[in-house]
Fold this sequence. Notes:
- This protein is an alpha/beta fold.
- The protein has one domain: 4-Layer Sandwich (CNF1/YfiH-like putative cysteine hydrolases).
- About 20% of the residues lie in helices and about 25% in strands.
- The chain has six helices and 14 strands.
- The strands form three sheets. It has a six-stranded mixed sheet with strand order 1-2-14-7-3-5, with helices on one face.
- The protein is globular.
- It starts with a strand and ends with a strand.
- About 45% of the residues are buried.
Amino acid sequence: xxxxxxxxxxxxxxxxxxxxxxxxxxxxxxxxxxxxxxxxxxxxxxxxxxxxxxxxxxxxxxxxxxxxxxxxxxxxxxxxxxxxxxxxxxxxxxxxxxxxxxxxxxxxxxxxxxxxxxxxxxxxxxxxxxxxxxxxxxxxxxxxxxxxxxxxxxxxxxxxxxxxxxxxxxxxxxxxxxxxxxxxxxxxxxxxxxxxxxxxxxxxxxxxxxxxxxxxxxxxxxxxxxxxxxxxxxxxxxxx
Length: 240
């Protein structure tokens, strides 16, 4: 499972792919649970796995009920933050995480001002502006865009992301391929454009362009597997 920014001891970050299921353990959604006990159980399961893969003996974890929107919340405590698709914190020792399949997980870190964020960016959230919103929320508590480093996880590729006109029309034409019978959208390319527009330097963006649909052994894909699809976790934490 790839650890990110291993040269920065003040950060612990990872994007945990589906190979974890080889150990018989999978992430549990906090977005589709039906009662508080299920939510607590899902969070505890995810917290335990995240701590292991971050190389920490223990960790507090905050997640949100992901709703495919553009809301980003500031958090300073573990648990379920509420309906949102992004979390920001400056609290050392508090991990924040998002679950994805064909959507992208974005991890942001300003290691100088000690502020981090985790964002679930599907097409709806990306088109609605969740990326600049995440940077705005980081700036509110002291982050500086030119100091922010960002990791962009694998997501669905433009070759596999066939959409209807109602989706294609939400994106700039430069990110829409109309050479096929139906439009195809380059979600990854749009995300990179949005990051650069916020002022984050391109050299500070790490992006994995692997396609979730095409890499079945390594990555989950809802488009490929439907309701049977698992989820992958993007998680980040400031050192205590």
